[in-house]
Design brief:
Helix content: 40-55%
Shape: globular
Largest sheet: 5 strands, mixed
Structural class: alpha+beta
Radius of gyration: 25 Å
């Protein structure tokens, strides 16, 4: 009896018809294993994972494998995106045992959840032998199995421990982190490291803020070059916008085709901030197209943003996205087809599989002649129409709280930058206006959905689908990312309720997730007890829970003037500071928030009747130092602490600038405001 048919997770639903007798994660499954005196097989993956699909097809859809699993194990299927706490614990065990990790993750555990053998993907023949060997060991070598499990638990408990060394996150440490990134930077291809190469969005956000604080041309160049290299590579969808999860090579050519919400949200912030700081037309275009991708492809009307688009289409990776020269000619005609093949580097040999190529920009188009840009836009539109007739990748429709928080914050920042640079004279002004309208609507939909559906009795739930919230409790990253998003909504809309909601979430985090050393656990003190309580301080594909909660605390403290939240943020960052100094690539978001704290952060309030078009507001956004909060609206607007007792001076719009709770004199001219922000 497969028990996944009623799951809210699309990943679990993909396995609902397997011959494997799957159980969802829960006490009932472990009780059944104890009753039968058999080990537990825990299989962890996610809906957009290519090798998860491969293992499912090879093994979990196979009757022989299903019979072996059902006879000797209780099988539990886990969506790592729905249960990141479970994933974190067993991923630590897998890395401890094998030296590496990834998905699908395959774990064998005792009936109390203690892991004793871990791995990732296994071809069917290997998996069958493994099942037989583990079943034999459980029957005939039980004591050795239990000793192995105890050793693994001891190892992962140490790896996830809190209470290590602490130190203030100083300017010297942040400068050292920037220097370390500079040394590890791939000056030829952009980014860091070799293949596979992941978009280093959090490191780019840090480097942009570091440039703002220090004036470092090197930090800006690393961020700009990497952003351009990714934008011109195959990892960036040259037709519809958005970015794939990673490049399988070192030069961004061939992606692993899944598109994740969190990557695109964080990359939108990078390109929007690069656009704000430099006016770079490439950054403008990519920010616009990434916002459009989020609104068009991942937004679920009346809900939030879906989690991902699959890597595969009908079981074939790249089926939707790859082209041959002949296909370009078929879609565009002989002349434009040859022109597009040259521009997008589509060759007879191909850059992908079976003579196909992934589109990438061979030349700069943003600074090209207007005729070239017009032809390029026309070709892109026609190719997109042709591509839309192909089979399309499936979408993982679950709404994850943390990732929606990241998307809300990113779109809020994008909208402010777009308003800053809006001009009716731009050749694509209508397109930009259309994107800002749909992105704004999607952002508000997501925020309202989180507030109405994901907050249950004052506590966050992790995921929902079809407007129904799931049972898994929110983890620390959910509280941090959603609190930061609500702070962004407060700044963008001037509505006090968003700030109130953010404060409620942060209070829960301080009460339920805090660790004795000033850090935080990833799960609440009243959450389900796993074999270890995760507390990972490092930033990986997404901000760590600790970095995310610090970002929320810093923004909320600046918006309210309540210093205890800032003190909590400083204490938490102190637990990460020693890692920042040694492993800058894995603490990008912590360093980003550290730059905000070092900057102040600035608190900028503009008392005005025109919160959108006032030149003082534009100057505040354009020149905002790292992590600054900006609020504009009528004086003494209810629910907006930064506008309290902030009147117009001589009847004129007035800017009030404070830094670290120390305020400068009110100013009414743009020049005076810019001078205060310098």
């Amino acid at each position: 009896m497969n028990r996944l048919a009623d799951a809210t997770s699309p990943y679990l639903l993909q396995h609902a018809d397997n011959p494997v007798d799957w159980w969802p994660w829960g006490a009932e499954a472990f009780a059944e294993a104890k009753r039968r005196d058999v080990p537990v097989l825990i299989s962890v993956g996610y809906a957009a994972c290519h090798w998860c699909h491969v293992m499912a097809h090879e093994s979990f859809e196979n009757e022989q494998v299903g019979a072996l699993v059902n006879d000797d194990f209780v099988a539990i299927k886990v969506d790592r995106e729905e249960r990141p706490d479970v994933d974190a614990v067993y991923m630590t065990a897998t890395q401890a045992m094998t030296g590496q990790g990834g998905w699908p993750m395959t774990v064998f555990a005792t009936p109390d959840g203690t892991p004793f053998f871990c791995g990732t993907y296994f071809p069917r023949a290997n998996f069958v032998r493994l099942l037989e060997s583990v079943a034999t060991a459980w029957r005939d070598q039980r004591e050795a199995v239990l000793r192995q499990g105890a050793a693994v638990v001891e190892a992962i408990s140490g790896a996830q421990a809190v209470g290590g060394p602490t130190a203030p996150l100083t300017a010297e440490l942040l400068d050292s982190a920037a220097d370390q990134l500079s040394r590890e930077y791939d000056a030829t291809n952009g980014g860091f490291g070799g293949a596979p190469k992941f978009p280093p969005h959090m490191n780019l956000l840090f480097l942009l803020r570091h440039h703002q604080r220090t004036g470092s041309a090197r930090s800006l160049e690393i961020a700009r070059h990497t952003a351009e290299a990714m934008a011109r590579g195959g990892i960036h969808d040259q037709l519809a916008g958005g970015f794939a999860r990673y490049s399988v090579d070192a030069h961004w050519t061939v992606p692993h085709f899944e598109k994740m919400l969190y990557d695109n949200a964080l990359l939108l912030r990078c390109y929007a901030q690069l656009w704000r700081l430099t006016g770079d037309p490439m950054a403008r275009r990519v920010a616009r197209d990434t916002a459009r991708f989020l609104a068009d492809e991942l937004h679920r009307p009346g809900e939030g943003f879906a989690s991902a688009l699959d890597a595969d289409t009908e079981g074939v990776e790249g089926l939707t996205y790859a082209w041959t020269p002949a296909q370009l000619v078929e879609a565009l005609g002989e002349e434009d087809g040859r022109w597009a093949a040259d521009l997008f580097e589509v060759t007879e040999a191909g850059t992908f599989e079976h003579g196909t190529s992934v589109l990438r920009l061979a030349r700069d188009v943003d600074d090209a002649d207007p005729e070239i840009r017009g032809r390029w836009r026309d070709v892109v539109g026609r190719l997109l129409v042709a591509r839309d007739t192909r089979p399309q990748p499936a979408r993982d429709d679950k709404v994850v709280a943390a990732w929606n928080g990241l998307a809300i914050t990113a779109i809020a920042e994008f909208l402010r930058v777009a308003a800053l640079y809006a001009s009716p004279d731009d050749e694509d002004a209508n397109l930009m206006e259309g994107v800002t309208i749909v992105a704004d609507g999607a952002m508000r939909d997501a925020a309202e959905h989180l507030a109405a559906v994901h907050i249950v009795d004052g506590r966050l739930r992790r995921a929902s689908r079809d407007k129904v919230v799931g049972e898994p409790a929110g983890v620390l990253e959910d509280y941090g990312c959603v609190a930061e998003a609500f702070c962004a909504m407060h700044q963008l809309t001037g509505e006090g309720r968003w700030l109130e909601l953010a404060g409620g979430l942060l209070d829960v985090a301080l009460a339920r997730f805090a660790a004795p050393d000033g850090g935080f656990y990833d799960t609440a003190d009243d959450a389900e007890q796993l074999v270890a309580r995760p507390a990972d301080p490092t930033d990986n594909a997404t901000p760590s829970g600790r970095s995310a909660i610090v970002a929320g605390l810093v923004a909320y403290a600046a918006l309210t003037g309540e210093n205890r939240y800032r003190e909590a943020a400083e204490a938490a960052l102190a637990t990460v500071a020693p890692i920042v100094g040694r492993h800058a690539r894995f603490t990008g978001y912590a360093a980003t928030v550290g730059e905000a704290l070092l900057s102040g952060p600035y608190e900028i309030a503009v008392a005005t009747d025109d919160a959108v078009g006032d030149p003082l507001v534009a100057a505040a956004v354009r020149h905002a130092p790292p992590g600054a909060v900006v609020v504009a609206g009528r004086p003494d607007q209810p629910g907006v602490p930064l506008l309290a007792d902030r009147p117009l001076v001589d009847g004129r719009p007035t800017a009030y600038v404070c830094r670290g709770f120390v305020c400068q004199r009110p100013v009414t001219s743009v020049d005076d405001l810019v001078a205060q922000l310098g």
